[in-house]
Design brief:
globular, about 240 residues, 10 helices, 10 strands, Rossmann fold, single chain, alpha/beta
Length: about 240
């Protein structure tokens, strides 16, 4: 579904991604792992057309469509949703307002439309807090809202950047359960995750980024048992 080939991205004169190759198959969860500062968020921003960084070389194709040079709005209109690191909510808007303002595209054939009711069924806690503003939500509630806000656009590909970051264990389990629901529904997901246990329990294929290059690609089940690779590249 998504094919990233020989991607180079930079912040000014500082090159962060150096020839990244990643394949994201349709209807699977692909994991992007790595220590802090290795380029994971830079890759997500490059896919979404956000600047900085600046893509200086390579290709990002969604199906037959080249995404490089397109605006984030046009990329979203093609069916790419983003759950950004840090949630990026509006402090003054209520839960309902966050979901009402999202631009929508028609749901793809065979996929159900994401409505506010359906979003609140995925995370019932948000239904209880639907009149609360972004500034009044807990960290876990903000993360749930960031996820369903992205789903409201009816994406075919969902980019998730550190969705369990800073969450209590019970909230991590809630987010994991929601991601499993999305996988069962056939949504394609590219998941950036520092929580190794969480990531390996969710993803089908894992890629490890180190200093801007992919140093491992393979089935998550194999990586979970590869202690040498985990120690070498992830420090565990």
């Amino acid at each position: 579904m998504l094919e990233i080939t020989d991607l180079h991205s930079s912040y000014g004169e500082a090159t962060v991604l150096r020839g990244v190759n990643v394949h994201v198959p349709a209807r699977q969860i692909t994991g992007l792992l790595g220590r802090n500062g290795m380029g994971k968020t830079t890759l997500i921003r490059s896919i979404m057309g956000l600047t900085p960084p600046q893509v200086t070389q390579g290709s990002i194709r969604l199906g037959d469509t080249q995404l490089l040079g397109m605006s984030p709005e046009d990329i979203a209109a093609l069916g790419v949703g983003l759950v950004p690191q840090g949630r990026r909510l509006f402090a003054s808007l209520t839960v309902t307002e966050h979901l009402e303002i999202c631009p929508k595209r028609p749901a793809s054939q065979g996929r159900s439309d994401w409505t506010i009711q359906r979003a609140l069924e995925l995370f019932p806690r948000l239904g209880e807090r639907r009149k609360h503003r972004g500034s009044q939500l807990s960290g876990g509630e903000r993360q749930m809202l960031a996820i369903v806000r992205a789903l409201m656009s009816n994406p075919d590909l969902l980019l998730m950047d550190e969705p369990t970051e800073g969450l209590a264990p019970v909230m991590v389990q809630t987010v994991e359960a929601a991601i499993r629901v999305l996988r069962e529904e056939g949504l394609t997901v590219l998941l950036v995750e520092q929580n190794l246990r969480s990531a390996l329990s969710l993803v089908d294929t894992a890629h490890i980024l180190e200093t801007g290059s992919v140093v491992y690609s393979g089935p998550a089940a194999e990586l979970a048992n590869d202690t040498a690779t985990l120690r070498r590249h992830l420090g565990v």
